[in-house]
Design goal:
The protein is mainly alpha-helical and 311 residues long. 72% of the residues lie in helices and 4% in strands.
Length: 311
């Protein structure tokens, strides 16, 4: 893949220890390929199982799901640790050993550096695959909050006209979804009746923000895109700046500078736009949150103001 040991070399010019580097690299590559295959097989099997457990777990706090999820994450992390330990033991130790013995002035020192670079690049490739599967497993935690919210609404519709006064028996309409135990006055005899919302209804305040965030995720993604753009433009401009060091042609230098100025203008625009997009997202998210739990609006607005001031 990385072609380190595919170069044509004069056999007489290759030192005897070079074969150990070859063998170490080949074993390392083979080891990671097997580890990646096992990691993928494990993740592909675990993801649908986790989704099914989350869907079928009636526990409000999803304790069964989180127990299994923790175990899956632990096993995935063990795979990563196995790769890291092997890298340190079988690659870095070999590299440090030869690097200490071979002078940097030796014509063969590059073989040692190339060995480490190739093995390090392959290790980074493994890390990227690990990160991909970790994120895929992490996504199984995402609950269908719209469905949970709809269940709460359906429950409310079913009980809102079925509450009666404990004193006179008169029907009392439940005018909204209550989050806590509440006193409701009977319209006929004025008796104060205690209405206790169900566990499902009480849970609305726990899912409200998450649901609001899901509904406005497209606005947050727009902010993130603009926020990342600033760093990307900075690196592009920096690379152009470095290219000027080896350029002597005046026309080419002017063209590079013009491109750098253009990138800087775009970067400054991104710096200004990102906070605006974040405020648009935040306001929309809190508006959704307030629609879902209007009783918490006053509290939510205080949080909103604090968040705006601290951003």
């Amino acid at each position: 893949m990385f072609g380190l040991f595919n170069k044509q070399k004069d056999d007489e010019a290759i030192p005897g220890w070079y074969s150990e580097l070859q063998e170490s690299q080949q074993r390392w590559f083979s080891f990671l390929e097997k580890l990646e295959a096992k990691m993928e097989e494990f993740a592909v099997a675990a993801i649908p199982e986790l989704k099914e457990i989350l869907q079928s777990d009636d526990d409000l706090y999803k304790r069964t799901f989180h127990r299994v999820y923790s175990g899956v994450n632990g096993q995935l992390n063990n795979t990563r640790e196995k790769a890291r330990n092997t890298y340190e033991e079988k690659i870095l130790n070999v590299y440090y050993n030869y690097n200490a013995q071979i002078s940097v002035l030796s014509k063969h020192h590059d073989l040692v550096s190339d060995f480490r670079n190739a093995c390090s690049d392959r290790y980074e490739e493994f890390e990227n695959k690990y990160e991909y599967w970790r994120k895929q497993i992490e996504k199984t935690q995402e609950r269908d909050l719209e469905a949970e919210y709809q269940k709460i609404l359906d429950e409310y519709d079913a009980i809102k006209n079925k509450f009666n006064c404990t004193q006179c028996g008169g029907n009392i309409e439940i005018e909204k979804i209550f989050l806590i135990e509440t006193y409701i006055s009977c319209p006929y005899c004025k008796t104060q009746n205690t209405f206790a919302p169900s566990t499902q209804a009480r849970n609305l305040q726990n899912i409200a923000r998450g649901l609001a965030e899901q509904r406005t995720s497209h606005l947050y993604e727009a902010f993130e895109t603009e926020d990342k753009k600033e760093r990307e433009l900075y690196h592009q401009r920096h690379e152009l700046s470095l290219s000027k060091i080896h350029e002597s042609d005046k026309k080419a230098l002017n063209e590079i500078q013009a491109k750098m100025d253009e990138l800087e203008e775009q970067r400054q625009s991104a710096i200004k736009n990102a906070p605006k997009l974040y405020q648009i997202y935040l306001r929309a998210m809190y508006d959704e949150w307030n629609k879902i739990t209007p009783d918490l609006k006053e509290h939510n607005e205080k949080m909103y103001q604090n968040q705006i001031q601290n951003k």
